[in-house]
Amino acid sequence: MATSTMEFKIYRYDPDQDEAPYMQDMSVQVDFEIDRKLLDVLTRLKAGDDTLSYRRSCREGICGSDAMNINGKNGLACLTDIRDLKQPVVLRPLPGLPVIRDLIVDMTQFFKQYHSVKPYLINDSPRPERERLQSPEERDELNGLYECILCACCSTSCPSFWWNPDKFVGPAGLLNAYRFIADTRDEATNERLDDLEDPYRLFRCHSIMNCVDVCPKNLNPTRAIGKIKEMMVRRAI
Amino acid sequence: MSNSSIPVRKFDAVIVGAGGSGLRAAIQLSEGGLKTAVLSKVFPTRSHTVAAQGGVSASLGNSEEDHWHWHMYDTVKGSDWLGDQDAIEYMCRKAPEVVVELEHFGMPFDRTDEGKIYQRPFGGHMSNFGEKPVRRACAAADRTGHAMLHALYQRNVRANTQFFVEWMALDLIRDESGQVLGVIALEMETGEVVAFHAKATIFATGGAGRIYYSSTNAFINTGDGLGMAARAGIALEDMEFWQFHPTGVAGAGVLITEGVRGEGGILRNSDNERFMERYAPNAKDLASRDVVSRAMVTEINEGRGCGPNKDFVLLDITHLDPATIMKRLPGIREISIQFAGIDPIQAPIPVVPTCHYQMGGIPTNFKGQVVAPDGAPVKGFYAAGEVACASVHGANRLGTNSLLDLLVFGKSSGDSVIEDVASGAVVHQDLPADFADRTLARLNRLNTQTGGSNVNETRLELQRTMQKHCGVFRFKEMLVEGVAKIVEIEKAVARTEIKDKSQVWNTARVEALELDNLIEVAKATLVSAEARKESRGAHVRDDAPDTPENPNGRDDANWHKHTLWQREGSSLSYKPVTMTPLTVETIALKTRSY
What is the rounded distance in angstroms from the CA atom of residue B170 to the CA atom of residue B184? Predict the structure, then answer.
């Protein structure tokens, strides 16, 4: 058995009990034969202290629940290999959003921005009896876009989103906006571009590219944002 | 706390669960103009439908000839004739319609060269009544569930559906006549307990795969709907039937889709042999899941497992074109690298059968109405998806029929609610005076328990018991012992203690409440399994072997019937399998082979 101790510094805050947030030193025995991911170790920590609070569900990087700030960088606990982590491992809630408790943030603002881009197919033409046709090449345009899991790692690593979470759509929302702009079945491209042609909604992106750096699904919101800007320029001339 | 202190909110309908079936039902109700509340423990796109990979079945015939009747035959055969043929016909006939609808909602399906929905082969999908494999699984790469769940959520955003996100339903409200009047739920962020008073209640709470130690299921799959229904006196149907998916990543449990074998993947033992040729000469690696899982366990038990402990087999796709893997199976490659530490382009993936899906559940008809043992609808109560038992999956589910089930019965349950509300068949009835007593007693007990049992340890004991006593192969003595053990564990569950007493986002409380549901499901499973003295589909026991009188150990004379488990007294009763389809001839009992 390859057991050893892992050291943590974890952001703790329970508004029911605590006057203010604090960093707590915690340690736990891990078995490197069994424990691979940070979420496995959090489960062990929680077994020892059931007050430690975080979201989690699928434990395979597809549901987007367990996003947190790990040693200064946003990521999913279930996809973070523990062998690569410098100790003590510093865990904080995603930056820039209000903390509800411990590692759980209030994501209202994040989802508000996502919803603001009308993240659904708009096609009011009469529905055909069968599927709408789309060539494999047209479908390929959606790759790198539709895979977003709404974990918020990107938007909460973006300084522009930190400063203007109410006005700047943020990388996740913009990636999803482009997912529908790029869809040949969608008929609202102009309306979508109009909606984003605004000093804040789109143009607060300064290509800092933190979003690309942290995306656990290796998506590239900056590229999607660039494409939207390109389309705006093209339709202006 | 007394009843009067609980806020009551009134809706036409409340849907519990926002995975595939809940979201599909919500689209019907929101677009149908009903005042609807959708409750979910997690943000909708975090529901476990998101983890489905391989596809959703529909006889679209986009690449070769297919027919819903063939799909129906495969489903009946896959169910080992335990599925109800009216519901199966309904589902298979509806499949093209609901899949095309999903495409219209924006689902990013992969495409054929003609621009149609891409379809791949899958286990047990055959043309011409079992003749040869057919391409029926409609796929978005190997992320079909993710693409589908997001498309359904997005459609709900468009329809302005009212969600209550991170609310956990705790108990069903029923009146003396048995009519269902809504649910009591806990807001996780504040700890507030609220009654949702509704004319119609749809359960879409998903499965309970977390009763097993090794499961492909998410942490949230704790059988909440089953626990609530059982506590409210609703019988649970066919709970002995659990699907073990052949290919969970060894050690991690994470799912590797059957679509891998659909795209040409092969299972190999330590002799590098394609062993499925011996077990299923015709369908080989694409036989039904129960058949493949048993073959794998047999290989391992007979010493032909791989690895230092000879405890897994290998799923090999190294012979496939890397471009195909990158295009059709990109998520699988990611998972293999993340959780097995290997790139499947270069090396085979270590896999073991892993608990995946519950075939049983809350008994419903094909309209999504919950039914009493006599077949009469339980007024005001509907269920769809994995929590429900229509029964379309019988003793073993075909791959991709789960996503189809969500769409078809999510929609039909929504339509039934619209119809029943419009006709006045269900109206708001007064809440009984004691409607919240039981729930508040549970919460109070949890808040004040001292010297009790540890939630985490008790849950682990439950999961290990299920794994050991009620797995891929079942043994008479182990089942009897398992029942006794679960009864002991039940006592520990009744006195769980949590240290966390906060009202704010108390995950310890949620996990303890989930354990209250897991124990009901575990008990229903073991008691039902112990009692069924035959082998059928996913339920195979040592004392019901393959004989000339009972091929595969199936005993139709005595056991061709559905189990019903009642929590009260943990008692069992049985009801006949519906063998009469809606419009076509009965698919008669036959020995099952692939």
Answer: 6
Cβ distance B143 to A147 less than 8 Å, yes or no, reads: yes
Name the pLDDT band for A2 (thresholds 50, 70, 90).
confident
pTM to 2 decimals?
A: 0.97
> Which pLDDT does position B2 carry in this prediction?
46
Residue of A nearest to B337 (CA): A79
> What is the predicted pLDDT for the residue at B568?
97
Phi, psi of B385 (to 5 degrees): 85, -155
Half-sphere exposure of A227 (CA within 13 A, CB side): 20
**pLDDT band at residue A1 using 50, 70 and 90 as cut-offs:** low
Asked if B117 has any chain A CB less than 8 Å from its own CB, the reply is yes
Whether residues B13 and B118 share a domain: the answer is yes
Please check whether residue B356 touches A, CB under 8 A: no
Q: Which residue of A has its CA nearest to B105?
A: A121
| B154: nearest CB among A102, A119, A134 | A119
Closest partner CB to A133 (pick from B116, B251, B255): B116
CA atoms of B25 and B14, how far apart (whole Å): 10
CATH number of the domain that residue B280 is part of: 3.90.700.10
Q: If you ran DSSP here, which 8-state letter would residue B33 be given? A: T
Size of interface A-B (CB pairs under 8 A): 151
Q: In this structure, are B151 and B218 located in the same domain?
A: yes
Portion 335-354 of B in contact with A at CB < 8 A:
335, 338-339
- Contacts of residue B30, Cβ cutoff 8 Å, sequence gap at least 6: B36, B156, B159, B160, B161
Q: Which residues of chain B have pLDDT under 70?
A: 1-4
A59 closest CB neighbour out of B112, B143, B219: B219
Q: Is B289 a catalytic residue?
A: yes
Q: Is the confidence at residue A42, as pLDDT, over 80? A: yes
Q: How many distinct structural domains can be found in chain B?
A: 3
* Domain that residue B477 falls in: 437-539
User: Which amino acid would we find at residue A197?
Assistant: E
- Give the gap in angstroms from C-alpha A53 to the nearest C-alpha of chain B: 6
Please indicate, yes or no, whether residues B416 and B477 belong to a single structural domain of this protein: no
ipTM over 0.90: yes
Closest-CA distance, A173 to chain B, in angstroms, reads: 13
Least Cα separation, residue A12 to chain B (angstroms): 13
Name which of A36, A55, A146 is nearest B108 (Cβ-Cβ). A146
Among B289, B333, B541, B567, the active-site one is B289
Residues of A whose CB is below 8 A from B100: 129-131
Domain boundary among B491, B518, B539: B539
Report the C-alpha gap between A114 and A174 in whole angstroms.
Answer: 8
CA distances to A171, A207, A229, A232 from A203, rounded to whole Å, are 11, 10, 9, 11
Half-sphere exposure of B172 (CA within 13 A, CB side): 32
The per-residue pLDDT for range B479-488, each reduced to its tens digit, is: 999 999 999 9
Name the CA dihedral angle for B301, B303, B308, B309, rounded to a multiple of 10 degrees.
Answer: 30
Cβ neighbours of residue B475 closer than 8 Å, sequence gap 6 or more: B541, B542, B543
- B419 at interface of A, judged by CB pairs closer than 8 A: no
Among B454, B186, B502, which residue's Cα sits nearest to residue A51? B502
pLDDT digits (tens, 9 = 90+) for A72-96: 999 999 999 999 999 999 999 999 9
**Looking at beta carbons, which residues of chain B come within 8 Å of A121?**
104-106, 151, 154
| Same domain (yes/no): B199, B74 | yes
pLDDT-based confidence at A237, cuts 50/70/90? confident
Residues 528-557 of B with CB under 8 A from A: none
- Specify the pLDDT at position A18: 96
Q: Which residues contact A232 (CB under 8 A, 6 or more apart)?
A: A193, A196, A197
